[in-house]
TrEMBL record:
Species name: Phaseolus coccineus (Scarlet runner bean)
EC numbers for this chain: 3.1.1.31
Annotated protein name in UniProt: Probable 6-phosphogluconolactonase
Protein origin, superkingdom: Eukaryota
Alphabetized GO MF terms: 6-phosphogluconolactonase activity
CDD domains given in the database record: 6PGL
Lineage, top ranks: Eukaryota, Viridiplantae, Streptophyta, Embryophyta, Tracheophyta
Alphabetical keyword list: Hydrolase
Pathway membership, UniProt: Carbohydrate degradation; pentose phosphate pathway; D-ribulose 5-phosphate from D-glucose 6-phosphate (oxidative stage): step 2/3
GO cellular component: cytoplasm
Coiled-coil stretches: none
One biological process term in Gene Ontology: carbohydrate metabolic process
UniProt record similarity statement: Belongs to the glucosamine/galactosamine-6-phosphate isomerase family. 6-phosphogluconolactonase subfamily.
Reaction(s) catalysed by this chain's protein: 6-phospho-D-glucono-1,5-lactone + H2O = 6-phospho-D-gluconate + H(+)
Amino acid sequence: MQTRRRAPHSLHLAEELYTFVYLHYLYSPYYQTLCDSDSLPSSLYPQRTSSSLSLSHSKELASMAETKKLPVQIFKSEDLLADSLAKYVADLSNKFTSERGAFTVCLSGGSMIDYLRKLPEPPYVDSLEWSKWQVFWLDERVVPKTDPESNYKLALDGLLSKVPIPPANVYAINDTLSAEGAADDYESRLRELVKNGVITLSPTSGFPKFDLILLGMGPDGHVASLFPGHPLVHEKKRWVAFLTDSPKLPPERITLTFPVINSCAYAAFAVTGKEEADAVHSVLGKPENPVKLPAALVHPKGGELIWFLDEDAASKL
Ligand SMILES: O=C1O[C@H](COP(=O)(O)O)[C@@H](O)[C@H](O)[C@H]1O
């Protein structure tokens, strides 16, 4: 399918968003970097707070900002979050496909695919260079690809079947193998793709450097298939690990490890709902908390992290 470029998406989306932008973010070097960048238009990152941001709330956010230094956007509805997330992903797709002719993206399962629901719609469906996307999974359940629990199936049904990404660029796990075999196989394939130059290697960490990692977070603070208290949280060598005792069903899974997650160029969380509010508070709002949930361990070194939240998820901040 022929792809065509459109004029940059208009600013009206950002204008209309009911978005609280944490005050620290406006002045942080990270924010300035993004705003100064040609490739990531500042329309995505409004330079002013919403008029509906109350003074007390803004003070609270500002003091949180002092300690956390994380960019967080809070949306009035999940639909507005989906609008902004689609634009964020599209901007990065344009950046990486024009800069190096490929865009390596790691998808999560769970709600993430639903939050990406605007991508297979105009203007993105026929303006992005889908043929240059290379799609991976941050984690996968070791079940047949046709199983409703499969993260691959979720993505196929919700996104991949609706956009022209070549099937050869979609790296699903080998579902005929055991969890251990599937993790080994996935890691070998990633190593091959690093050798071929499809995935870049972080010169600092020596781990693969994906262009974008899209993360969900469970109510327990887990990310990918890295669960609180599980030894895999501390894995330092493997690129891809397996577990057979996931506290969330199904028990057999494979997952990228923290060294890989923290080597990426861009990482984005999308989290909604009251059920997640405690974990969001623990990660973003409680810097004194010595017990770090897995989500709090996501800090791309040399990369950039952003959180997309709805008001329910942010309600305890
Ligand atoms: O089991 C999983 O859960 C997390 C979080 O899912 P969510 O529905 O609460 O967003 C997900 O990110 C992960 O990929 C999945 O395997």
